[in-house]
Amino acid sequence: xxxxxWPFLLLLFLSLQTSWFLLFPGLGGAPDFLLLxxxxxxxxxxxxxxxxxxLVLGLVQDVLVLPTFGFHLLSRxxxxxxxxxxxxxxxxxxxxxxxxxxVLVSIFVKLAYFVVLLVLAGGQIMQLGHFPGGFLIYVAQNxxxxxxxxxxxxxLHLWVERHNx
Length: 165
Description:
Layout: H1 5-23, H2 33-45, H3 47-64, H4 71-84, H5 95-120, H6 131-164
Helix pairs in contact: 2-3, 2-4, 2-5, 2-6, 3-4, 4-5, 5-6
């Protein structure tokens, strides 16, 4: 029963992510709650489970964002695998490790998305003039939300481990 908390939490995060503009219309961008969850999950579970989670979350996001179908699947799968590789190499007890990974992953994902958009725009960078501001807002929002989400996810992770043993 306690393992059902993760799918429920993912549905909540997906709802928050898709309704962010309605809740906070003037902020100019939405944080990537699913990416924040993926970074935490891969840190705790390792590369195989991180890859699986990333592929599932990426497929869900690709279904919702059709113009770039496949981008989220590949990027989230790669993020889940690579962050999962750090499982034994970083301290999972400190929020700063998580925040650093969130910032690095957010930068990677946004830059990769910029390259995809640049290819789709036929190399015409003028059509992507809104990108720098959106990039900074995206990374800043993810970094700011990483702190409270780490506390919540860490507490839930410990709670699930205690109830599964």
